[in-house]
Amino acid sequence: MAVKTLIEGVREALDEEMARDERVWVLGEDVGRKGGVFLATEGLQEKYGPSRVLDTPLAESCIVGVAIGSALNGMIPVAEIQFADFIHPAFDQIVSEAARIRYRSNGSFSCPIVVRAPFGGGVHGGLYHSQSVEAFYAHVPGLKVVIPSTPADAKGLLKAAIRDPDPVMFFEHKKTYRLVRGEVPEDGDHLVPLGRAAIRRQGTSLTCIAWGLMTHHCLEAADQVAAEGIEAEVIDLRSLRPLDRDAILDSVRKTARALIVYEDNLTGGFGAEVAALIASDGFEYLDAPILRVAGPDVPAMPFNKPQEDAFMPGPDKIAAAMRKLAAY
Amino acid sequence: MAAPAEAGLSREEGLRLHRWMCATKALDDRMHILVRQGRAPFVGSARGHEGIQVTAAAVLEEQDWLVLHYRGLGSAVARGLTAREWMLAVFARAADPLSGGRNIPGGCFAHPRLRIAPTCQVVATWIPKAAGIAYAARWRRDGSVVMCTFGDGATSKGDFHEGLNFAAVHRLPVVFVCENNRYAISVPLELQAGNPCLAERAAGYGMAGVVVDGTDVPACHRELRAAVARARAGDGPTLVEARIWRINSHTSEDDQSRYRSQEEIEEARRHDPVACFERWLADRGWLEPAEAEQVHRELEAEAAEAADWAERQPEPRLQDLEAHLFA
């Protein structure tokens, strides 16, 4: 297997699925001639033509609305929102339309769309190129919410999302795009099932639950505390919805301690839901309070570098929480 | 024999349109009775909209799509929605083909067999969706056209702009019909738009724009048929503004006397498209008043029977609350 970047995993998934099924198409701002601002769609327009790789007007609600309409009429759209920070105008289309079409029509219509959006900070993106938005969508019944953290998963999860018969929100942490490298299966049917977490590191001292870039920060933190005899188990959720409850609870049963790490603002972030799950269904396993390390409750990550670093839940902060938890 | 040139509407077509309008009115009137009787919880009335609505469906072919707003009962009826089907939705019964009792009647006209796309009740979200359906239709080269309807209120929303703009950029086979009854619930047109001619916005998008008297059924038929022909020929979308009068309150939860004068409400009743069209048909000797009355009585009886029948049908099962969330 070749070693590739995470964004190459995304691009391969799109390419293979477009080659496999002519109904699959890509739309978004700058996805065509430019190949996307992160080059996720580089080369696809030349290969599949401008009608299947469409440069849209700068209008997020239109992008998702058109995607939904095309799905109702037999196409399989992959809509790109250039930055997750700009997805809010499409919230109505995603929540009021896409998420509810199957339910609202009592199963007579479906909405097989994928909405891809780069999210997260640590890239000097400032307030409007750094946000984490997954909790908004993980709240909504009818949506699946997926976040890869490795190149192989980016490919396998995106292919699975495209083949999924329901709407999938696919968030890619932009800092992982070129930072994270790994082996990517060449197999055209390399699929990673939605709703299944991955254990990235085995451990017995505590369970650390994360997604996206935070998975890597947790692994770094786990390496730091391993020298002190703390063995953290790191779970990469990969899908927030459906949530792999068994993977979380099985691990907590083993370690009796849970730390949840997310880059989104602390209050109401998806980690709160994971904490509630552990509290209600894993209470008897616990020897310590459930801890969270998350972004502070300020609107978003500042452009200023020291402030950006202060916002980011980095390995040092996570390692400190691991020590605190292990000391109980 | 050729249809009269001035109307482009044959006697047979005219009588069919009239029958659909009467069917819509009968269902509407019956719903108001059901609400007053305490048997149904809610009615959103299409009174005053019947002419443009039935015409919008009548000019389509079988493979074409309808993307309707929630007041679009007349279009659904003309497309083939039966009185019994509609009453199942009114009573939120399990067999309701539109939403299985999940949405308020008309809130979702989803009907795959009739090619009526599922619509949302957040105004105008379905306009970019209609453009997307049309984009796929063009990509598939299946020759189909999308008919998308909405009220004047929708023209204030960003989705109206985004959907029309996209459709115009790609010259998509879609017809946008604005049923302009001059009110977004209680807000009059002059507080919604700086330019009261909504069709003039079409020029800004680079598409055809047409104003039609929505109480004039032959005129509606002529303009919509032309717009569909343009769409099917690859000449792009059209924005049709049909000017009509809202006869009833916004819904059974609304009291229009709080914001409309009695004179205006009475004036609106004088622009009832059903009555206008009956005069037009009578002028041609195609339908005598007594015959029209007979049609009304027949369809009122059908609506009443459908209501009584639907009321007896089973409710959705509680265990189906979570059904059809995912495949």
Structure description:
- By secondary structure, chain A is an alpha/beta fold.
- Chain A is built from 13 helices and 14 strands.
- In chain A, helix 3 packs parallel to helix 4 (91-97).
- The N and C termini of chain A lie far apart (43 Å).
- Chain B has a domain at 47-81 and 110-301: 3-Layer(aba) Sandwich (Rossmann fold), CATH 3.40.50.970.
- Chain B has helices at 11-36, 50-58, 73-79, 83-90, 126-140, 158-169, 201-205, 217-232, 262-269, 273-283, 289-311, and strands at 65-67, 146-151, 174-180, 183-184, 187-188, 208-213, 238-243.
- In chain B, strands 1-2-3-7-6 form a 5-stranded parallel sheet, with helices on both faces.
- In chain B, strand 4 and strand 5 form a beta hairpin.
- The longest helix of chain B is centred in the first third of the chain and has 26 residues, at 11-36.
- The model of chain B is unreliable at 1-5 (pLDDT under 50).
- Chains A and B meet through helix 3, helix 4 and helix 5 of A and helix 5 and helix 6 of B.
